[in-house]
Amino acid sequence: MSFGQSQQHIRSSLLRRFADTLHLINGMCPHCSLSLQNHLRLKAARAAVVVFLLAIFATPSFAGIDSSLPEAPTPQADTSQQKTGPGKDNTFLGLHVGPAYPLYANKKDTIINPGQHPPRLSATDKFLYAAHEQTRWAVLMPGLISAGYGHLADADPHTGSDLGGFGERLALTVVRQATDRVSGDGIFAALFRQDPRFYRVGHGPLVHRGLLAVKQTYVRLNDDGEQRPSFSGLLGHALGSFLAMTYYPHNSASAAVAARGFGTAVAGDMGSKLLLEFGPDSLRLAFRRKE
Asked: What pLDDT sits at residue 83?
């Protein structure tokens, strides 16, 4: 029995007892004096008032208690299984290559594919995003390419031409690029309220896709989805290049080297944007051949 039903039962029982009491007073003493009968009726009336007040104060609505049954829980849709379209969501080392993608992107995703809903990144999310970037396998690829080219061309920083020199050059390159990402995708992205993620076009003429991909080196979306100059990304490249002068070998620590490093970082950023745009297409073809 619910709370409301039990209270209704109590009120009905009290009212029945009061009616029985009045009937008893009228019937048990027909020969009693009128004054005695009136006295008994007065007591019964007082008792009726008490019963009435108790009946009112005991109601669930007056007491602030909701006697209705709780609503059934609303079933929640499993958004992790929703996709942008037909086809399989193929992945390679954590990278979604399509032809379908999760409908809702993750806050740690570097690439936002066509049709995906990107979550809004807070300042804290951007710091975590930049830190997570350092753990991705793809981070080593630009460092290996840059260190390999610099080693063959004997470019700055000059660390030697042997295997040990290459290892030192690679370490310096990785540190510089990590500083670049943490500042450009974390610190400055939070300060300028800009989105550090890459938005793939995914379809259309190759030249058009390539131009839009390279454009994202110089233009980023802000937190409201509006295009703005990529102050965060470009300042990150500059800070990473000039801060490297504090730990580069003495013969390679100069403003000219820092300026060339900034130009190389910007060019490398454009190349990485092209890789992020067209790389998933190549990987998807590999999955298609396997199927």
From this structure: 87
